[in-house]
Structures are given as structure tokens and as C-alpha cells.
Amino acid sequence: MISVSWLKRRQPYWTRLESLLGDIQRHGLHALGRDELRELGLLYRQTATDLSAVRGDPSSLQQSRYLNQLLGRAHNIVYSGQKKTVGRMAQFFWNEYPLIFRRYLPYTSAATGIFILGGLMGMFVTLSNPDYMREFLGPAMVSTIEKHEMWTHSVVAAAPQTSSLIMTNNMTVSFLTFAGGITAGIWTLFQLFFNGMLMGVIGVACGMNEMGTKLWSFVAPHGVLELPAIFIAGGAGLRLAQALLFPGTLSRRDSLAVGGNEAVRLLVGVIPVLVAAGLIEGFFSPSSVAVPFKFILGAILFSMLVAYLARGWKTNVASVQQSHMS
Known about the structure:
The protein is an all-alpha fold.
């Protein structure tokens, strides 16, 4: 339960945010100085964090409604007025994004669970009925697997062009998984489940034909980046779906505005990860490098990604907020 003392400590910050929004409404955004604009962004982020805490307390419905309305007024102003400088982007990726990931981890976890469920379903169906792999993957791909050949040999011959195509495809899949949230999450859930099922069927098909090592040594170097990126994009889609289906005390339009902004920020962080995954998948994964080195690279990259995202649990929030004020 939210304590009265906590509400009293936070109230001055909410009042200050409301005051700045009032100044903008009366005199326009240009009426605020540089320091006040930075303060506005800081107060917005603090209030969003406060709202997450208040939502978990059934006795704080009035405060939740108030903060929802306050954030609904502020979000367009905050994100339309930010300058996208290199320093600002670096600040976002290095300090803010791990905190965003932490805040919306339940959505990413749900997306990951749907993918795993699809993978288990694909494995179970294929193990129960091996002929299913031919129906699901198509005769040509299954024939290639049965010949103990990978379907990725053509990637090596045209690595630069293929790498660009892979990056585009990965970003398209991630964006569609995210954008599916606007369908009440139905398309997001389908994308996650289907891709999980695809992975499960291919895994069993390759395992049955003694191709398991070839498959997983190909997947490991880039998959440790690509799959988490897709899970995060799926989590962003689920956040968007929640805003659509459960607007709470906000109007559905305002709920989508706030939830959509939060979801986009979660999605943006995976773009560099997808670029890196595309480069690795185009140049390194299908190469003739020894299998152990591919698994070693996969382990290193996954460890780096985990260490980066874990900053959300280690970063001093106060120091991040202070950096916005400097």
C-alpha cells in the first residue's frame, strides 16, 4: 500500500509538472528556458515511474487518475520538444534504456513465454508426426535438410547484400510484432507463437537428420541478439495492446498516446541490436569458422547483452535524473 508520507513527498513534483504545463498552455513552449525544458522531461519520467507504483495500490485510485491525466497532457510536449543530439541519444541508450527495459520486463517476459510455447508446440507436433515438418516447412526445405545440407549456403556468396536484406527483414518482423499491438495484441501473439513454432519444427527436423549441430552453430552467433530483440518488440506490442484494451481512468485516445509512447521507447532500443544481428547473420553465422568459435561468440554476445540490460537494476536512478538537469 502506498503510504501517506510517500504521497506527500511526491506531491510537490507533480505540482511543479502541472505548473510547467500550465505555463506552456498559456504562453507556448518557447516561454520555458533551457533548464525548465530539461526539468519538464525529468518530471515527466519521474511521474511515469510514480504512476507505475500507484497503479499497484487499489486504494490510490484518485492519485492514479490524476497522474494519468497529468502524463496524458505532458507526453506530446515532452517528446516533441526534445533535441535528438548525439549526446542525448547516447544518454538514452546507455542510461535510460536499461531502466525502460526493467520497467516493462513483465511484457517482454510474456512475449518470450508465448514464443517458447510456440516452440514447444512445434517440437511436440513434429515428434508426434514427422510428416508434419513437410507440411509446415515445405518439401524443398525438408529435402535440403534430409540431404544434410544447410539452406544458408547462398548467404556466404553475397554476404554484403544478404546482410542488408537480413537487417531489413529482422527490423520488419520486429516492427510488425510491435505494431500488432494495435490489433488488441492478436497479431503480436500470432507472430510470436508462429515464429516459436517455426523454430521448434526446424529444430526437430534438423535433429532427426543429424543436422542439429549445423543448425544451432548457425543460429547461436546472431540468434542470441535477434531473438531477445524480437521478444522485446513483442513486449512493446503487448504494452500497446494493454493501452488499447485497458485504458483505466484515461480516455482510450489518451491511453494509446501514453502507452504508445512508452512502447515506442522500448522498441527503439532494439534497433542497434538488430543491426548487429544482421551483420553477424550475413557475414559470420554461415561462414566456415569452426563450430566451437561460433558458440563461443554467441556466449560472449549474449553475456554482453545481459550485462547491458542488467544496468537497469544497477544504474543509480538519481544519477540518471541528475544528468538531465546538468
